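Preliminary data (for renewal application), iron/sulfur cluster complex.
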Amino acid sequence: MPEKESKNSDNSTVANAPTNYKICEIIEAEIKTVNNLKIKEVSGKGKKEDVKIDIIVNYCKGCEICVAFCPEGVLAMNKEIAEVVDISKCTKCNICEYLCPDFSISIE
Ligand code: SF4
Ligand code: SF4
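Predicted structure:
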């Protein structure tokens, strides 16, 4: 439910967004090319400590296993490639790295 309403210039009402929700930060991945491999690298403060998540774009086949099994909702699919959407929730449990069948994702 909107918390307040305000008026447009034509006197119609418009609902204000609730003030108690957190706007997700847009996470910019640094794109690196190493040995002809394109790597999306995201670094930041995880739930417990600093974390770096690398996704090798060339290897990712878009199976979504890492997204489905990450217990914290850190990952999502962007078209056919996995990507980091909220690194602040990452606990460095390494489940994504263990389960990726293509050695595409790594946690440091
Ligand atoms: S598990 Fe590996 S191959 Fe599958 S979407 Fe995640 S990074 Fe890509
Ligand atoms: S290390 Fe664990 S919490 Fe972090 S992205 Fe991988 S599965 Fe999710």
